[in-house]
Amino acid sequence: MTVEFPHLDLSADEVLTTTRSVRKRLDLDRPVPLEVVTDALEVALQAPSGSNLQGWHWIVLTDPEPKKIVAEYYRKSYTAYAAAGAAVRQAKPPKDADTAEKVASSATYLAEVMEQVPVLVIGAIHVPGGQLPEGNQAGLWGSLLPAAWSFALALRERGLGSAWTSLHLEYEREVAEALGVPPSVRQGVLLPVAYTKGTDFKLAKRAPLDTVLHVNKW
């Protein structure tokens, strides 16, 4: 029997433009049924992949121990990342210092509470031999990342949020060993998943299109 989950009354454009990186508004206390995660992953499986190989794998963590392991490696990587970022901002203050500070504070919060997030989902992909290709890897990751983003969009429509992260990949091998991931499967993204505190997310501030648009030539 298929379980039906509530959906927000959002248009496709609203889902696409209001799916934000959610950190401080993740509800750490509200349980997330595994079924709602797999329901959103069913949507993700409709994404394209190179030669239709569908080589993706989804590692869904709900138990405290594996979440703690991933969180500890994530924090270890984040500590170095945050220190480097702070040094860069001090040497060259960003144009929008307030936004930069808010993003940094939000990211620090997520690192601190990562294991408390109800569900952690790692998107990964089968790589023959486990060796990443040299040079441009767009062909490989282009067969995983669209599905991972579709998953994030499907979560948004169901009233849940996530934040696209990859800092744990600094310790990809250690995480793989702890979770029993075979060497032929390489990780590409970590998505902490929870219901959100409120569902009213707005468009983000972005540079105007004409500053990045190139028609027919650069």
UniProtKB/TrEMBL annotation:
Signal peptide start-end: none
Keywords, comma-separated and alphabetical: Oxidoreductase
Keyword Transport attached: no
Any one GO molecular function term: oxidoreductase activity
InterPro entries for this protein: Nitroreductase (IPR029479), Nitroreductase-like (IPR000415)
Domain annotation Nitroreductase: ranges: 18-194
Family that this chain belongs to: Belongs to the nitroreductase family.
Protein name: Nitroreductase
Organism in which the protein naturally occurs: Nocardia alba
